[in-house]
Amino acid sequence: MRHAHGDGRRARIGLLGGSFNPAHAGHRHVAERALRALRLDQVWLLVSPGNPLKPRRGMAPFAERLASARSIADGRRIIATDIEARLGTRFTVATLALLHRRFPRACFVLLIGADNLFQLPRWKGWRALARGTPLAVLPRPGETRRALSGQAARALARHRKRPGALLDGCGTSRHAGWSLVPAREHPASATAIRRAAGRVL
Ligand SMILES: Nc1ncnc2c1ncn2[C@@H]1O[C@H](COP(=O)(O)OP(=O)(O)OP(=O)(O)O)[C@@H](O)[C@H]1O
Ligand SMILES: O=C(O)c1ccc[n+]([C@@H]2O[C@H](COP(=O)([O-])O)[C@@H](O)[C@H]2O)c1
User: Fold this and answer.
1) In this structure, is residue 98 part of a structural domain?
2) How many domains does the chain have?
3) Most buried one in 7, 47, 58, 173, CB count within 10 A?
4) Which pathway (predicted)?
5) Least confident span in 114-118, 141-145, 172-176, 180-184
């Protein structure tokens, strides 16, 4: 993969992991807002081979979800990738460890919607994950306030940073930190799209 970092600094890559069942304008909005607010070079849409917390029922095949993610990417700044399936990982903490090892010069930041900040304490190894990789949280309708007063936000309160400073000294601080990215809340959701299409939820 080519990294756009003409000035010689480390490539700044936002990782937007998701089921993409299907991909939608909310994902594109998150990627575009993060590119700008965090001065990223690229956002990778990491299509999950299977979210450990989501039921398999109603989950479209991987190839279909990858194609869906590609349809909202631009192939330049926003790239859909099957790397998580190729690495053979499903837990994000494991995916991140392998990505850091495979791309040691890249500066990664994990992009999540506010619903996932609230859920973070249910993720495997979430404290180690948050220590090792910066987290950028995007507001989401009906989720932002609850997430900011939830268990993860409280536990990580003293590591919160300004979005503009989140990637400063990438990988050298004792705790990677996290930020809320200021952005308009986008109402799109895959559940709503599946429901409107009459698909199994
Ligand atoms: N409209 C949105 N605003 C902010 N974040 C979003 C939005 N849509 C998705 N995300 C985030 O993008 C990531 C991948 O989302 P995912 O593919 O699960 O889509 P989803 O719409 O949340 O799906 P579902 O409704 O099936 O749970 C998650 O971190 C999610 O929080
Ligand atoms: O690692 C975990 O324990 C874990 C638990 C739940 C979700 N995730 C990841 O969170 C990302 C968003 O998932 P989803 O299904 O809400 O789009 C995706 O990359 C999942 O693999 C990861």
Assistant:
1) yes
2) 1
3) 47
4) Cofactor biosynthesis; NAD(+) biosynthesis; deamido-NAD(+) from nicotinate D-ribonucleotide: step 1/1
5) 172-176
